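thought: fold this chain, then report.
action: predict
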Amino acid sequence: MINRENWKDVREWLEYLERMKNKNPGTLKKNWQFLRHLIEWADEKPLPQARLIDPTFPVYLATLRKDGTNASRLVYSSVVKGLAISRSYFEFARKRWHRYRPITESWIETLQPTRLNKPEPTLKNRRYYTLEEVRKMLSVSTETLREQRAKAGAALLFLSGMRVDSLASMPRRCLDLHNLRVFQVPSMGIRTKNSKAKITYLLKIEDLIQTVQDWENVLNEQGFASDTLWYTSLSRQGEELYPTSIAPLNRKSMIAEDIMLLCEKANIDYLSPHNFRHGHIVYARSFARTADQLKAISENVMHSSTQITDRVYANLKPEILQGIITSLGDTSIESGIKTYAFSKEDTLKLIELLKRQLA
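observation:
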């Protein structure tokens, strides 16, 4: 039987995150999903006595099935995330309630994945949409407004690197195509991760920009107001546009369906719309020559640090990585690899970024 005090403590922490830390509903829901495992692990025992519970929480997660049956175990990334959230909860609880004093900081640090959790090492093959694939999508025949809207959405996602939910909720006033910028500002109606606000910029790729402009022209011809959603709604038959300004939370699934349609017509593998963001970052980084340029890319996708951009999204293709590493000590120009003049500081920073990718 679940200990009711444990449940109340966890709910109070989630309310604190919502009220004081302004966490969005999606983040709170994910936190609750992970903390539910913590409550079920403790069962009748109070969480302030978590140090005495056997098996330990990391071992419990290592053997936990998704639904309590014979389903597959939790994936490693879920275990890592769940333990990180649990550590944050216990750190909060120690400061909030005196009864959590038996939970020491050193014990909290033991909430780490075990070897039972860790999967066998494999080569990562991160997929993303390349510029060539985007152009192939845009080259298919346009027979409906839905297909034209999908093309414009694909082009804008690649040009901007914005998140899909931001596109799904973006009013027309947030896009300044003339100056190649997007006002990702929640007070203007657009949804962003953790409600961050920033003016971001588009890559200057003329044919993709023209596709976005063509859709802008359609919206202008309809006389849609600035608060109308840029990725506006269509009639059931896909023949008429509706000037809606309301963006339900699940609206990004509609964009995914549109991209799936484009991929099918272009005969390319479907990836989630988020992979336009990945493609944007990889493409932009291929032109970056200084540490400042790498930082600009990271800030433009609204990451708090270049480490996040580099670790999660910007893995180099093997052939590019090979070319850079093998040419670092090569002073000749016969290798066919284009060379650039780096400052000593920029060279050291770039080497550190590459080393983190190889780790």
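thought: worth noting. Residues 76-96 form the longest helix (21 residues).
final: tokens above.
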